[in-house]
Amino acid sequence: MKKKTGICSKIYIALMMFFLYVPIAVLIFFSFNEGKTTVWKGFSLKWYEELFKDDNIMNALGNTLIIAILASLFATILGTAAAIGINNFKGKKRLVIQNVSNIPIISPDIVLGVSLMLLFTAVGVMFNFEMGFITVLLSHICFCVPFVVLNVMPRIKRMDQSVYDAALDLGCNQWQAFTKVVIHELMPGIFSGLLMSFTYSLDDFIITYFTRGTKFQNLSIEIYSMTHRRISPKINALSALLFLAVLIIMIAINLHDRHDEKQSLQKT
Prior knowledge:
The chain is an all-alpha fold. It has helices spanning 2-30, 46-53, 55-88, 92-101, 103-106, 109-127, 133-158, 162-169, 174-203, 206-211, 219-226, 234-267. The chain is 81% helix and 0% strand.
């Protein structure tokens, strides 16, 4: 019985991996195609060269990375502070505030996008400014903060609260105890929230579409504009490079985690 269960689980995992990664493999494969269609016409790096020569795509990629980096950094700081603040509440207050902070995660992106668009439009009429880089950045920070809170809160609940008091007793002031003890204990959750915020910001289309105005262009909007005509194989090359970058980051994180685990085991 156990052997049958093991075989079934392996088949299920294999099918899941197949459906997840075969489309990506096909995309990467055709990024090296000489022709523009899905008919193989020979190996070529032409579309990678064309990609780096396309100013519109490069500008959109630059805007996307800048927004993702800034939004993830600000969201991580605000989300970590919010998680610590929520933890300081007791009883029903903490439960209510925590549930309210999860609403942006549960609600559809189009609801958040339209509501932010209406807010920025009203503020723009009052203070005479147009939507663009700043409004997109604020929007991304807004929907990334709950993901940081979601990652940091479990680490706070698992942390031994007496460690902070011990640091104070051993001569640290409040700031030193917070930065050297509390933040150190919460770092895995903070780092996970940072990565999740960066990923969601990089991937977002709907909220950016409603809050970008007429001048700002990021990668998702640029690709969407290409759907009105034929999508260039340059996008295949760009997607392959983004996938490779994410893969390298994930491998580096896993190697770092394994190294930390080995060090902790050696100390014990």
